[in-house]
Amino acid sequence: MNSRYSTAGSAHQRDVRTQLFGPNPGAAGRTPPARMSSPYEARPTASAKHNEAFLSSLESQNDDEMDSMSHKVAALKNLGVRMGSEINKSMKLNDEITNNFERGTVTLKNTFNRMVVMSQRAGISWRMWLLFFTFFFAACFYVWLM
What we know:
Residues 1-49 are annotated as: Disordered. By secondary structure, the protein is mainly alpha-helical. The chain has a domain at 70-146. It has helices at 2-5, 11-19, 48-122, 126-145. The radius of gyration is 49 Å and the shape is rod-shaped.
């Protein structure tokens, strides 16, 4: 194992690997390989005046976009606030309607119970009341047609 990690024992392996890349002219006479030009070359350098004008135009575009976005965000916030107030108003109205219907139900129930008690005290049967209301509605219907 000692020879595996020693520098003297691995020199022949390094020589074999370097032979893959072509002849070794020597360490002193080595020249770096010719580099191909990149398709992503940097833009040609412009004058400082042109750069400043370009940067100022970018900043003005950025400011315009920021103003536009801030107006849009403000409009969305305003819309959200108005929607929240409308929802709260609708919930209050719904609660008021529910309370009114509950009071109306209780009132109708009490009125019906009083009418039943009154009819029992009067000694008139429900058939007589049915006959009376039928006659009453028939008379109203007759007047409505004429």
